[in-house]
């Protein structure tokens, strides 16, 4: 009971953030309580750190890359190009914005797509004369696709990194399984969003109101290097994976290189084009404290055998074969994520799968990826499902676009369930196919 109480109170502190208390300090308070009560022990600290350090520093490095490219005008430039390619047809622009969100989410993680791209898309739509209510379909689509298509690579979501590190899944193997699944998730997302919002889209927009994409580029040096660096980064991920090089080392090296390039970019005595110190301050350093604290609290649930029930349930699902195990695990993880946040949920799911005993490799592997899918998509059920969603709603509020919790949940449930089901079914079919090829 102590472990459960500390977990619930810690989660409340993280979500509510009373008196501006950071998420990192909130999680550390919970971890300190567990240590004081003997729910976790000091020997558990290095165990938890070994699980989360690579994921945490990869995430921080990705956000620094995103912030630098955002300051250089990279995302604004891309959004304006989408606006021009839309040729004045909102229905076409709707598809293009979703495709842009898919690309940004895959490379810059779901948080980068939701928190950086959404305000840019909203500003572009308002400049085209769309009212905030008219832009709502695009805003929801951008936030929704950021999570539903954050599956393809380990780096695409913090949840992915944690699970891959926990089960020692290489970048190559992860991508082999999840890239096709992500494509299916993306197509499902496109279809569901189009069916839901097609009647809400305006008839046309005035292309002449869009500024030229080249005017969005604020730092040409960082902008040009950004393209080359992103292409090189994806190659290095695949090349370095068989060598056992941590993903965080590769990503951090890219972030440091782009920081050095930004620091050396000057223009006619006016100083740096990109303010380096504010970018570094804007990085999510609190996530380092949060990861350590929150996952220690989750580890306390394991020590108290509170994950044993889930292990038993997962073992029962596994006994019914690949499809039941995959879909059941995915929906269970999604429900857990929607009520207790996806970051602790992914570790709870991983610990439960590990404790569920032995079953055929194909079923076990599918359940591991189903846990990831559930924790990536499940947060769309409720606003508290992920910290990114809470921040996304806050950013929109500041931009004058209010989305209440009732509206969010009403739309989120309708949109998420079919996409989640289609994605999990695709995973089961793909894992079965890979197993057949292997044998």
What structural keywords apply?
439 residues, mainly alpha, 0% strand
Secondary structure layout plus pairing:
Layout (H helix, E strand, L loop, with lengths): L1 H15 L6 H15 L6 H29 L1 H12 L4 H38 L8 H13 L9 H9 L4 H27 L22 H21 L6 H17 L12 H7 L3 H18 L4 H11 L3 H19 L1 H13 L6 H17 L9 H12 L6 H34 L1
Helix pairs in contact: 1-2, 1-12, 2-12, 3-5, 3-7, 3-10, 3-12, 4-5, 5-6, 5-17, 6-8, 7-15, 8-18, 9-10, 12-15, 13-14, 13-15, 14-15, 14-16, 14-18, 15-16, 16-18
Report on this model:
With 439 residues, the chain is mainly alpha-helical. Helices cover 74% and strands 0% of the residues. It is built from 18 helices and no strands. Helix 5 packs across helix 17, helix 13 packs antiparallel against helix 14 and helix 15 packs antiparallel against helix 16. The longest helix has 38 residues. The chain is globular. The protein starts with a helix and ends with a helix. The mean pLDDT is 86.
């Amino acid at each position: 009971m102590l472990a459960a109480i500390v977990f619930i109170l810690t989660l409340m502190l993280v979500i509510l953030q009373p008196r501006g208390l950071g998420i990192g300090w909130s999680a550390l308070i919970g971890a300190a309580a567990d240590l004081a009560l003997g729910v976790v022990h000091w020997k558990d600290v290095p165990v938890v750190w070994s699980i989360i350090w690579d994921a945490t520093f990869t995430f921080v490095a990705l956000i620094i890359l995103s912030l630098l490219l955002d300051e250089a005008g990279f995302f604004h430039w891309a959004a304006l190009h989408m606006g021009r390619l839309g040729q004045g047809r909102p229905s076409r622009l709707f598809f293009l914005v979703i495709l842009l969100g898919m690309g940004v989410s895959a490379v810059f993680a779901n948080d980068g797509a939701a928190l950086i791209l959404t305000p840019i898309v909203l500003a572009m739509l308002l400049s085209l004369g769309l009212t905030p209510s008219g832009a709502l379909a695009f805003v929801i689509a951008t936030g929704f696709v950021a999570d539903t298509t954050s599956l393809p690579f380990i780096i695409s979501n913090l949840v992915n990194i944690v699970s891959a590190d926990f089960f020692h899944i290489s970048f190559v193997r992860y991508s082999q399984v999840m890239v096709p699944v992500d494509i299916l998730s993306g197509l499902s997302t496109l279809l569901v969003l189009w069916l839901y919002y097609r009647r809400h889209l305006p008839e046309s927009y005035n292309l002449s109101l869009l500024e030229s994409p080249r005017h969005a580029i604020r730092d040409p040096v960082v902008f040009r290097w950004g393209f080359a660096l992103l292409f090189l980064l994806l190659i290095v991920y695949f090349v370095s994976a068989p060598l056992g090089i941590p993903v965080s080392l590769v990503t951090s090296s890219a972030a440091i290189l782009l920081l050095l390039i930004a620091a050396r970019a000057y223009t006619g005595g006016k100083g740096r084009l990109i303010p380096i110190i504010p970018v570094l301050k804007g990085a999510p350093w609190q996530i380092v404290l949060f990861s350590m604290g929150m996952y220690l609290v989750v580890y306390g649930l394991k020590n108290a055998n509170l994950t044993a029930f889930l292990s038993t349930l997962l073992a029962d699902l596994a006994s019914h074969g690949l499809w039941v195990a995959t879909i059941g695990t995915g929906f269970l993880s999604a429900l857990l994520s929607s009520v207790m946040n996806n970051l602790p949920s992914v570790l709870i799911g991983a610990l439960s799968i590990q404790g569920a005993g032995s079953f055929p490799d194909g079923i076990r592997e599918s359940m591991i990826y189903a846990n990831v899918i559930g924790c990536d998509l499940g947060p769309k059920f409720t606003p508290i499902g992920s910290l990114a969603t809470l921040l996304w709603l806050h950013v929109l509020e500041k931009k004058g676009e209010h989305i209440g919790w009732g509206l969010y949940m009403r739309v989120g449930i309708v949109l998420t369930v079919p996409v989640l089901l289609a994605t999990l079914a695709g995973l089961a079919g793909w894992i079965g196919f890979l197993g057949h090829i292997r044998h």
